[in-house]
Amino acid sequence: MTARLTSIHPILQVPDLTEATAWYARLGFQQMWTWGDPPARAGVVRDGVEIQLVTQTPGFPPGITFSYCHVVGVDDLYDQVRVEGLEIAQPLDNRPFGMRDFRLRDPGGNTIGFGEALSNIHAPLIVVVTGASGAGKTTLVRALEAKGIPGIRCYYFDDIGVPAPAQMVADYGSGEAWQRAMTRQWVSRLRVKADNVGIVVLDGQVRPSFVEEAFQSEGITRGMIVLVECGQEIRNRRLAERGQPELATERMEHWAAYLKGQSEMKGIQAIDTTASIPAESAEILLEFLRPMIAPS
Question: Could you give the 3-state DSSP secondary structure of residue 294?
Fold first, then answer.
């Protein structure tokens, strides 16, 4: 009979078995067995993957092991890790060797990595819809989303939470630096968290240059920017109607003019919503996207 390998289990030394099994439980691992009285070894399992934990042997230093686990849905696992507040040794990112991964450090000092192959992840067309407040970009994207078109999924930049300006400065140095960092984070996530759809649409009031930087840094070859714009009077009226007249400022007008200038300079597709209702504007965007929707 020909021998066949069936599995391999990393054996990690930990200072306290009870503490370690509780830590791995926060990652979704279930304790399946223990050995010794009192227990000196335990097996924890998640999704058929087993890790063995053993109390440290005198004279054998802890924290010398590194294990790596291939996963499906690494972004979702990373979200769980952050909610649990586990120590992150290396944050989630795309690696030059073709993996998207992160690393944790357990109570014994062991490092364990979780990664998903970029080659196994469908990369969608990423469409970033930008525009000044009141131009109608969010209304347009929501109207597109309401159509329920197979192959298109819509996301909203502000769903990540927008900190106060003072917090942006404290954490990133400026509001613009925060916007740049979050734009890259969104593009990175959408590249691999597209739920097998062909097109992802992100509504966000961001600089086109930040989107282009994010596309370049993440190796995005299928990406586009769409500007939603309208006349100043219409924009100010919309802001008043939605209870945000304080946004109808000279600064917002300069921002709208800047975006229009960027659109003209970079050849960005633009949709003027001055005289259109949301459904009509969504149809215009859909016409841009329709040739790129994969047939079902």
Answer: coil
